[in-house]
Write a structure and sequence with these properties.
Distance between the termini: 26 Å
Largest sheet: 8 strands, mixed
Number of strands: 13
Structural class: alpha/beta
Radius of gyration: 16 Å
Order of helices and strands: HHEHEEEEEEEEHEEEE
Length: 196
Amino acid sequence: MRDNISEKVKIRRSTLASLKAMDANHRKKLEANLSEQLINYINANQFQSIGFYYGFHPEINTPLIMEEIFKLTNSSLYLPRIEANYQLSFREYQDETQLETVQRKIRQPKSDAKSIHIEEIDLLIVPGVSYQENGYRIGFGGGYYDRALAGANIDTVSLIFNEQLYPNGSWKVEAHDIPIKKLIIPGKGEFDEQSI
């Protein structure tokens, strides 16, 4: 167990270093491609309620993608809020004034924002650092999304750069790990349950 944790820590560090080293202009082009693919996916499936997250460097710049979702879809957005006992709730997001900054510079909805049960979300966009092609991920180490997704039956997707993608078996998957159903990757198309 300890060996697997140190293995995940090493992979997380390596991936974060690769993300930080990316050329800023190239990154913007890739983010625009990810945004386009995501919006096409949302519209093709007519998803109405979208769970997202407020990403910041070296993560994907999600605030720009959220603006595009508001412009080009009829969807409502919900962002995670950290609650007691390491749980997440999802609360409606309309603009920056509804957010507060908490630990590790995380931007989240204020406590008075309207909440939605995770099962009411049509599509949940899940953050992460490293991904295997089969959808298993290494996050930032808190386990929030694995707990939130345990027992939930919803569509999940992650937007990732090529630098974040690893072959299946690159680390040992644990019993509590929940795979993401679809990975959207610039230049490589998509990996989803049907193709893996």
